[in-house]
Design goal:
4-stranded antiparallel sheet; 20 helices; binds zinc ion
Length: 499
């Protein structure tokens, strides 16, 4: 509550004075305005005694000096009352002092020997935020639990939060929670404040959480020595080993303490817990999959069926995760995001999952590459490697034979651009060679941007050779040898394949 700091005398602004005098008059007329209404099961009312004394001031009620004297001895609540009504009786305010209150400066009149907090509490008896100052001492001594409402104080011997109180606080809060006390969202992380005396939960999800401290707001108008006892703060989060959708977790003690002290807000609290849980999860090393706020436990199959991405990405992911010891927590549902998340630790395993040790070797250190590009490159290398491994190797081929063999191998890897780059049309002078090259271009691409370089006869001959080029591109093993032979024959070349 407010740390009251004396700021020294000030000339009193008229309006402030007038308001304080008005409230002082209210209390002069009816001291019962200060008496809390009991909603608990207090065996006897702890306010009877001070209020008996307050009523006994009736006989000096019109004597400002005597009231000021009465404000200098005895019960503190009685002193505060006497000091306050003496203002009305004397008709003026000697001077206003200023105290710092969270978010504002509070002016109050100094009279008698009374703690400033109690003076403020009495002089602002109609302000639910300042009024509690008057009651703190007694509540502490008698272990009471008081609730400060717009309309007045309620008293209980133990925590018993009234509906009205909760409603007023929620009005003040930035939240608009439903009937069930929830913002209505589940998922990424949810702050839960359980009010035990109401057996009721307030739930605010990460997206709805504001830079406000709801717990602090909830206790802001409660006067009780153990004000926190009525509240349990938890954060629901999706991180958990094993089965189950969502885990409700105790907030780690250190984080909870900072939240209770109002050093962090709702949003920061949720983030701090999520970060902590995510870290724990990674450290524990047991497989668990969390995606888009949903916890799949260690159910890799369900997890994989909800992951979106190319077959290769999914296959790489599945293979790496099937090890069963790698937890994965991601925001979205893209396999690429998952691979990115795993990349720094498992790049080589991911490449190996979609290729071969030979390709991994050929790729070198991939950990600093972009995962998407590295995957594409690995797939291309692997495909080429497989295709080429399947083909016969020729050591001695003639001009047409080696050209057709080279182009077929490039075309087999499916890269028309490389094929086009590889053909140096200018160096190809021979009619047959040019037609063979053109046949491969036509067989592997529909792009006709380089066809202008060819004569009508070359084009016609290439159209005929196209089928043989296609056969070579398709063929594997021994059939490739046959296809190459057929191409040589069709092109009219006299070259023979080495036997
Ligand atoms: Zn009571
Ligand atoms: Zn929400």
């Amino acid at each position: 509550m407010a740390k009251v700091r004396f700021r020294g005398a000030k000339h009193s602004p008229k309006k402030l004075e007038k308001d304080i005098l008005e409230r002082s008059k209210d209390l002069w007329e009816d001291p019962e305005l200060l008496r809390p209404v009991c909603i608990g099961s207090c065996r006897r009312c702890h306010f009877d005694k001070p209020f008996k004394k307050i009523h006994s001031l009736d006989r000096i009620k019109d004597d400002a000096d005597k009231l000021v004297k009465a404000a200098s001895r005895g019960d503190n609540m009685v002193r505060a009352y006497a000091a306050t009504i003496s203002l009305y009786v004397s008709g003026k305010i000697p001077y206003l002092a200023t105290a710092r209150f969270p978010g504002e400066e509070v002016s109050f009149a100094v009279r008698g020997k009374v703690g400033q907090d109690k003076l403020i509490g009495a002089q602002y008896y109609d302000d639910p935020n300042k009024r509690p100052l008057l009651y703190m001492e007694l509540a502490k001594k008698r272990r009471l639990c008081l609730y400060s409402l717009e309309e007045g104080m309620l008293c209980s011997d133990k925590p018993k939060m009234p509906e009205e109180y909760l409603q007023e606080i929620m009005e003040e809060s930035p939240y608009n929670l439903g009937e069930d006390g929830s913002c209505g969202h589940e998922g990424k992380g949810t702050l839960i404040i359980h009010i035990q005396s109401r057996d009721e939960q307030l739930r605010v999800c990460r997206d709805c959480a504001e830079k406000t401290n709801l717990l602090h707001l909830l206790v802001s108008r409660i006067v009780s020595p153990q004000v926190m006892d009525d509240f349990q703060v938890r954060v629901e989060h999706p991180y958990k080993s094993g089965d189950g959708d969502i885990t409700e977790a105790q907030v780690p003690a250190e984080i909870l303490e900072r939240y209770k002290r109002n050093q962090i807000n709702d949003r920061e609290l949720i983030d701090a817990v999520l970060k902590e849980k995510k870290r724990n999860l990674k450290e524990c090393g047991s497989a668990v999959y969390v995606m888009e706020g949903r916890n799949y436990g260690c159910d890799l199959e369900s997890f994989m069926s909800d992951v979106r991405g190319s077959e290769e990405e999914k296959s790489a992911l599945q293979t790496v995760l099937s090890d069963g010891s790698i937890p994965l927590v991601m925001e979205g549902n893209r396999a690429s995001e998952a691979l990115q998340e795993l990349w720094s630790d498992y790049a080589t395993d991911i490449i190996l999952a979609i290729s071969s040790p030979e390709t991994v070797e050929a790729m070198g250190d991939v950990s600093r590459q972009n995962p998407g590009q590295a995957l594409q490159e690995a797939l291309f290398k692997e495909r080429s490697r497989k295709i080429l491994a399947n083909l016969p190797n020729y050591s001695r081929l003639g001009e047409i034979g080696s050209l057709a063999d080279r182009l077929a191998r490039i075309a087999k890897t499916g890269d028309a651009a490389t094929l086009r780059r590889d053909i140096e049309f200018k160096s190809l002078r021979d009619f047959k060679a040019r037609s063979v090259a053109l046949a491969f271009i036509k067989a592997s691409s529909t792009d006709d941007s380089s066809l202008w370089q060819f004569s009508k006869e070359e084009m016609e001959f290439a159209d005929y050779l196209l089928q043989f080029a296609a056969m070579m591109i398709e063929a594997e093993g021994d059939r490739y040898n046959d296809a190459l032979e057929a191409m040589l024959t069709a092109s009219g070349s006299a070259e023979k394949l080495p036997q």
